[in-house]
Amino acid sequence: MARDSYHHGNLRQALVEATVRLIEEKGPMAFTLAEAARQAGVSAAAPYRHFSGRDQLLEEVARQGFLDFAARLEAAFDGGRPTALSAFLRLGQAYLAFARDKPGFYMAMFESGLAISGNADLAAAADRAQAALVESARALFARLPADRRPPASMVANHIWALSHGVVELFGRGHPGARAPESADEMLESGALIYLRGLGLIPG
After folding, report:
1. Taking Cα atoms as reference points, which of 166, 200, 158, 162 lies closest to residue 183?
2. Chain centroid to CA 8
3. How far apart are CA 12 and CA 22, in angstroms?
4. What is the pLDDT of residues 113-164, one digit of tens each?
5. 134: part of which helix (H) or strand (E)?
6. For the CA atoms of 87, 76, 185, 138, what is the dihedral angle to 10 degrees?
7. In 10 A of CB 102, how many CB atoms?
8. Distance of alpha carbon 77 from its chain centroid, rounded?
9. What CA–CA distance (Å, rounded) separates 203 from 197?
10. Cα 134 from chain centroid?
């Protein structure tokens, strides 16, 4: 099937899908372009029709991952319905679900050491995901007086960091996965403690 895909002009996507499988098996740093070609069922030279090298292929995997990730965050926020707080917490759940559902993409995005700023399309996809978090944070504090609102970008970055930490420590089979609380419970309780500290939720 991979060769048929190649002959029908889908080699680029076949290589992306092959790379995702390799990342899931070996991690984002332990595969070669030749292995991706072999996994896709094409010659070692064929990937160079679309990618200058392994890093560019990895960047395309990350770009597609960020687009999917951003779409999930946007859908979870859903305009802040039914409440900004419930929508905000759903974003954290969407973050964890993406890491569980798409580990190959997740690792390419966050664990490959890519310089996102060096690829305009990749940076735009990552910015879209960031914008979903910023917009949700802005909505969360919209009812507070202007002088009491924390910067939306700061809140978004804090929640992103908290979500990422929960994934890495409690959601990926690491020792923390043995904790009595689930990753979802860890993230929700951490987010609520954080928001309570900012004065959004009564103590």
Report:
1. 166
2. 30
3. 15
4. 888 888 999 999 999 999 999 999 999 888 888 888 999 999 999 999 999 9
5. helix 120-140
6. -40
7. 19
8. 15
9. 8
10. 15
